[in-house]
Amino acid sequence: MRLVVDLNKCQGYAQCAFLAPDVFALHGEESLVYNPNAPEEQRERLARAVAACPVQAILADGLDDLAGEPGSGSGREASDGR
Questions:
Q1: How far apart are CA 47 and CA 76, in angstroms?
Q2: Rounded-to-integer distance, Cα 54 and Cα 62, Å
Q3: pLDDT at position 41, please?
Q4: Gap between the Cα atoms of 9 and 58, Å rounded
Q5: Does the pLDDT value for residue 78 go beyond 80?
Q6: Residues 21-71: pLDDT tens digits?
Q7: Which one of 4, 21, 38, 77 has the largest count of C-beta atoms within 10 Å of its C-beta?
Q8: What is the spatial distance between Cα 11 and Cα 41, in angstroms, rounded to a whole number?
Q9: What is the pTM of this model?
């Protein structure tokens, strides 16, 4: 599963790091690090992280079929909120 975070949008809320800690982590207080090739077994956690991002900085391919709602996965952006 391909994952992209728009680091220009990310405000460091860290919601993604709480919801998908195996994919996202904060390095220091503001620097987000993430695995751009998230493992398939993280799909559900990743979908929650994408949905929870307050600034919609996360873009993940292949999440539409999980959520069942248009725009709730692929093509939807979210961030890592702090």
A1: 10
A2: 20
A3: 93
A4: 9
A5: no
A6: 999 999 887 789 999 999 999 999 999 999 999 999 999 988 875 554 444
A7: 38
A8: 27
A9: 0.73
- What is the average per-residue pLDDT within 5-16? 94
- The dihedrals phi and psi of 25, each to the nearest 5 degrees, come to -155, 150
The residue type at 56: Q
Q: Residue 13 CA to chain centroid, in angstroms?
A: 12
Phi-psi region of 76 (alpha: psi -120 to 50; beta: other; left: phi over 0): beta
Determine how many CB atoms are found less than 10 A away from the CB of residue 80: 32
Interatomic CA distance for residues 15 and 13, integer angstroms = 6
Q: How far apart are CA 52 and CA 74, in angstroms?
A: 14
Closest CA to 42 of 21, 27, 25, 61: 21
